[in-house]
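3.2 Worked example (two chains)
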Amino acid sequence: MRLMKLHPAPALLAVAAIFLSACGADSTGPTSLDSHSALRSLALGLNQIGDGQSPTTVEASAVLNALEPLLDKVTVTIDGSAQTMYALGLRESFPPGTCEETLFVDPLFPPDGSVCTPPSLGLVILLWQSHSANQPPDRLALLAADIGTSTFDFTSQSFPAVALYVEGQNKIFGSESGTLTSQVVATNQSCDVPFPPYAKSATCSFATFTEQGSIVLSEFTLDGPSSGTITLGIPSITLDGLWLNITEVQPIPLTATRNLASRSLPLLFTRAR
């Protein structure tokens, strides 16, 4: 599968939808899975993206080993009903002056030297429920935003934050309004994970994420968006994660789904460098 030139927000929607449609039908809450098993469940779903090119065993092990001590459980609400979910935060930052036009290069659309769009949606929050290490998640919420207060209203700005939520096998929801306020504080403890292909050099640190917000999502059907909506409520929660600070970039061809996936979730969609 190939995608034409897209801004990361709709590209993320397209890529993540492939994964979400493969989630299981059991919508029970998380059981007594340990962190390793819960992350294995998440990885099963994420590895279904990328035209069959999964991370190597060494790369996958490195990422899972880094994330395992960080995995938290938090309580959010879905239409007012409390749900306990595994939680993980990822932040990606770029050196000043980085432009998406020269970083993700589509050979069919050479960059315009007069335009520079700073990379956006550098914050990803994952919330999920799993019942088995050998099955993809039963429920999953993916929030792509930025530091500070992000809006999910597509009518208010050109490139809003993006949220996806899946419940069961056929229910997929995309954000239409709401806000998320995010703060991230890096610790002095470093982490060792493979870098995404557009990072020539980078450092990785463990970090603490503080999130609060409310997001309204509308359901997608075979005929397009429906009138069905849900509200994901996030009280003030704290979770752990990783902060990848890219210190030097290198351009990569934006020609396949796997490149777009790497842009959206660099530490979980890692590919061989």
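3.2.1 Second chain
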Amino acid sequence: MNLTYVVFDTAVGVVALRSLAVLGKRAPWTSAGWGATLVAAGAAVAKYAQNGPQSGALIVAEGAFAFLTACFIIAFVRDEPQAEPLLWPVRLGPTRAQRR
């Protein structure tokens, strides 16, 4: 067991849940990205909490990471609002267009 990775990935999962709660359905691609982040963090916790190789968790984590990357790129191009501040989201931030 690698406790450092388990704690870190659990913290990332908690921030992902908080971001999903703040965003709701107002930013669908950003929410999908945070949902995939939650899945990737959960798979990483499963991978690092066990001793020995966990090929299933690795495949899920890598697939979720690829999906979350695509979702956040699409959200950036669509100029969706983000949950702010980054480490503990409490509000919906302005889009790039709203900041101009």
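3.3 Remarks
The mean pLDDT is 90.
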